[in-house]
């Protein structure tokens, strides 16, 4: 079964909601607003590919955070599989945060 563009958009919205429920343990802002999610691709079959980074390669949750993202996104209705790619190119910096995240951290 193939999803329509509308269904894919709905799955995408649900994935973003899930990503906004995952927090970096050192910063009280979710990983989506922090700009740690570089890309989310959803195929017509419901296969999801997420490209994300961490605030630093030595992040204490380098092992657990990507797994948490993978597990939570995998529970979204319509998602068949999740392929998560961790990258440090380009490396994360504060400019990647949303206005909301900067405001939350008192940087605006």
TrEMBL record:
InterPro entries per record: Fe-S_Maturation_MIP18, FSCA_dom_sf, MIP18-like, SUF_FeS_clus_asmbl-assoc
Domain MIP18 family-like intervals: 13-83
Domain of life: Bacteria
SUPFAM superfamilies: Fe-S cluster assembly (FSCA) domain-like
Protein name: FeS assembly SUF system protein
Species whose genome carries this gene: Chryseobacterium vrystaatense
């Amino acid at each position: 079964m193939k999803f329509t563009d509308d269904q894919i958009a709905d799955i995408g919205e649900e994935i973003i909601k899930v990503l906004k429920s995952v927090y970096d343990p050192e910063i009280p802002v979710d990983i989506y607003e922090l700009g740690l999610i570089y890309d989310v691709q959803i195929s017509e079959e419901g296969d999801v590919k997420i490209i994300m980074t961490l605030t630093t390669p030595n992040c204490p949750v380098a092992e657990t955070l990507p797994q948490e993202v993978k597990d939570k996104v995998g529970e979204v209705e319509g998602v068949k599989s999740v392929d998560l790619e961790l990258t440090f190119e380009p490396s994360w910096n504060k400019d990647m945060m949303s206005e909301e995240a900067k405001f939350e951290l008192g940087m605006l």
